[in-house]
Amino acid sequence: MEKKKLPVISIVFYTLAGISLAFAIWAIVYSAGVVSEAISMGQLVMKGSEFEIVSYYMDNISRYVLFAAVLIGVGWILQILSTPKGEILDEELAEMENDEVILEEVDEETLEV
Fold first, then answer.
1. Is 31 in contact with 57 (CB distance < 8 Å)?
2. What CA–CA distance (Å, rounded) separates 102 from 83?
3. Cβ atoms within 10 Å of 13's Cβ, excluding its own
4. Contact criterion met (CB below 8 Å) for 80 and 9
5. Distances (CA, A) of 9 to 26, 65, 72
6. DSSP-derived secondary structure for 30-91
7. Residue 1's pLDDT band (boundaries 50, 70, 90)?
8. Per-residue model confidence as pLDDT tens digits over 77-108
9. Residue 45: pLDDT over 60
10. What is the pLDDT of residue 23?
11. Which pLDDT value is given to residue 22?
């Protein structure tokens, strides 16, 4: 099995996505601390404030998760697009040759019958 090299630009996008995901995790921990502190101090009552709590989490976290998803998608697309055309043509030719060999074998078997 041949190892394919990742393009540098894809590695950059994957790294930025990892940083964004790490920041999202950090934001989750920070948000949980703020919410639990507000509840323990009596400034926030859990019952009846579910929407505000979820909205607070989404406001602090969702953009970083979305950025990471977009960066991973862009890195993946660039990885696919950067495959040299010679490799694609070689693979297609190899598949066509395999198909021809199979067809020849089928033709020989039908002639024998």
1. yes
2. 28
3. 21
4. no
5. 26, 20, 11
6. HHHHHHHHHHHTTS--STT-HHHHHHHHHHHHHHHHHHHHHHHHHHHHHHHHTS-HHHHHHH
7. very low
8. 998 888 665 555 556 666 666 656 555 555 55
9. yes
10. 96
11. 96
Cβ atoms of residues 75 and 8 within 8 Å:
no
Which position has the token pair 């989404």?
Answer: 58
Residue type, 27: A
- Which tokens belong to 57? 């989490």
- Which DSSP state fits 1? -
Cα–Cα distances in angstroms (integers) from residue 73 to residues 10, 13, 85, 105, in the given order: 10, 9, 21, 43
Q: How far apart (Å, rounded) are the C-alpha atoms in residues 28 and 64?
A: 11
Q: Which helix (H) or strand (E) holds 109?
A: helix 85-112
Q: How far apart are CA 38 and CA 57, in angstroms?
A: 14
pTM of the model: 0.65
Per-residue model confidence as pLDDT tens digits over 9-34: 889 999 999 999 999 999 999 999 99
